[in-house]
């Protein structure tokens, strides 16, 4: 379940992270982004429920990846057809872990699932070693693509 709410109530959550906490959005984008707490508070907050690696359900809060991709000018919506269906999003984490998604998996025209870049869990900032940002992929049988300490989002195209 996804719940949208205003950003003013959660500024304190983002403010708890240092200004050096950032995620770079780059690659085949119109506008490369540096996602910092100051940038993210301007975006619409959503929540998503997902199980963690030990099977317990948690409520995560953050920004929908689709909104981030729109802000970067990534190919979405009506433009996501033909050769553009070979485009993907690669997510890199601080420990070297990487996961990949086709852009169609993240596009509201293809799916009802909302993947989020979370900064809080159960109303609290992500714990040290798991944040400041975690990718949350609701509805997957295994949480392997719900990765933590996200540092980069790179858009590319399979050749």
UniProtKB/TrEMBL annotation:
InterPro entries: OxRdtase_Mopterin-bd_dom, OxRdtase_Mopterin-bd_sf. Keywords: Signal. Gene3D superfamilies: Oxidoreductase, molybdopterin-binding domain (3.90.420.10). Residues 1-21 form the signal peptide. The keyword Membrane does not apply. It holds the Pfam family Oxidored_molyb. Transmembrane segments: none annotated. Residues 59-139 form the Oxidoreductase molybdopterin-binding domain. This is Molybdopterin-dependent oxidoreductase. It comes from Chitinophaga oryziterrae.
């Amino acid at each position: 379940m996804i719940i949208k709410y205003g950003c003013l109530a959660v500024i304190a959550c983002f403010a708890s992270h240092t200004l050096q906490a950032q995620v770079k959005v780059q690659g085949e984008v119109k506008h490369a982004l540096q996602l910092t707490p100051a940038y993210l508070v301007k975006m619409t907050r959503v929540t998503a429920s997902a199980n963690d690696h030990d099977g317990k359900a948690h409520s995560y809060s953050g920004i929908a990846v689709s909104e981030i991709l729109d802000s970067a000018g990534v190919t979405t919506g009506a433009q996501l057809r033909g050769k553009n269906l070979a485009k993907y999003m690669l997510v890199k984490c601080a420990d070297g872990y990487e996961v990949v998604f086709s852009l169609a998996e993240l596009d509201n025209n293809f799916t009802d699932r909302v993947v989020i870049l979370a900064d809080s869990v159960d109303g609290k900032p992500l714990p040290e070693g798991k944040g400041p940002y975690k990718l949350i992929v609701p509805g997957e049988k295994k949480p392997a693509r719900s990765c933590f300490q996200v540092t980069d989002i790179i858009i590319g195209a399979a050749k």
